[in-house]
Amino acid sequence: MKRTNHNPEQFSRREALQRLATSAATLAMGGLAGFSAAAPTPMLNRPIPVSKENLPVVGIGTWQTFDVTGTAEKEPLLQALKAVQQAGGKMIDSSPMYGRSEEVVGDLTAKSGFQNQFFYATKVWTRGREAGIRQMEESMQKMKRSALDLMQIHNLVDWKTHLETLKAWKAAGKIRYIGITHYTDSRHDELIDILSKEPIDFVQFNYSILSRNAEKRLLPTARDKGVATIINQPFAEGRLFSRVKGKELPAWANENEIHSWAQFFLKFLIGHPAVTCVIPGTSNPKHAADNMLAGHGRQPDAALREKMAALIGGL
């Protein structure tokens, strides 16, 4: 489904969104002129608690979307990365689990003209100390980085072993931050236990307007322990778009600077003060540009977030 609103009666920023559509066409031709007109305010940044470094609240994930080979498949990905950078986004999240994604990220960012303006995050996903070291070194080579911003332990695989390596790598300057990840509600308690005991800088987990388990304990624990959060599966693996297919945004969404369903779903997450960054994945430059707009303008307060959740829950 298309991910922009189609009701002209709902837009107070109609011209801005027309420019967004124009920008998407420009992206397809390799340019970015006009995108800034659709994003008139700077993207919201939130501090990484351990360092106070500011990080833009919307980045891009690479699961499935960046696992490509041909030049024709890579070109829209390059334009999507340009859309991220142009709108003020920084984080690119990948993993050796994601096929060719790390290599594609490295190749495309090297061609982008602003390779050093991204925040590079990837993962270790294997068992054993030496195997983990080899895999992480290969990841750095594929992503064309002499040091990485964030290395995460993917889905908690052999986490105790890899955490010791990551502590040493951070001390040596090979990575800047240490993270852990999972993607299911059933492992949130384990993530909470680790955050309570270990020096973790980032925790990545599943959270969406349809899957709010993280709000119970994981997000509050991350906030209390000073751990930055990265949100995966923000669109509930596409189920959210299926739920709203053919439906128009309510008028009150436009009044709150929400102009597409993608922005609706992402702003719901960003509105939670303990969320540091969301990483929707896409290979479509227009969708990437739309996702980035979720980080701009007004963000929903607690009351509006509940109104948003009630709307989706009632569909």
CATH class: Alpha Beta
Q: What is the CATH superfamily label?
A: NADP-dependent oxidoreductase domain
Q: Could you describe the largest sheet, including whether it forms a barrel?
A: 8 strands, parallel
Q: Which blocks of ≥5 consecutive residues have pLDDT under 50?
A: 1-37
> What value does the average pLDDT take?
90
Polypeptide structure, described:
By secondary structure, the chain is of the alpha/beta class. The chain has a single domain, classed as TIM Barrel, CATH 3.20.20. It is built from 13 helices and ten strands. An eight-stranded parallel beta sheet has the order 3-4-5-6-7-8-9-10. The protein has a two-stranded antiparallel sheet with strand order 1-2. α7 runs parallel beside α8. It is globular, with a radius of gyration of 19 Å.
What order do the helices and strands come in, and which of them pair?
Elements: H1 14-28, H2 35-38, E1 45-47, E2 54-56, E3 60-61, H3 71-86, E4 91-93, H4 101-112, E5 119-124, H5 129-142, E6 148-153, H6 159-172, E7 175-181, H7 188-197, E8 202-206, H8 218-225, E9 228-232, H9 239-243, H10 251-255, H11 261-270, E10 277-278, H12 285-293, H13 302-313
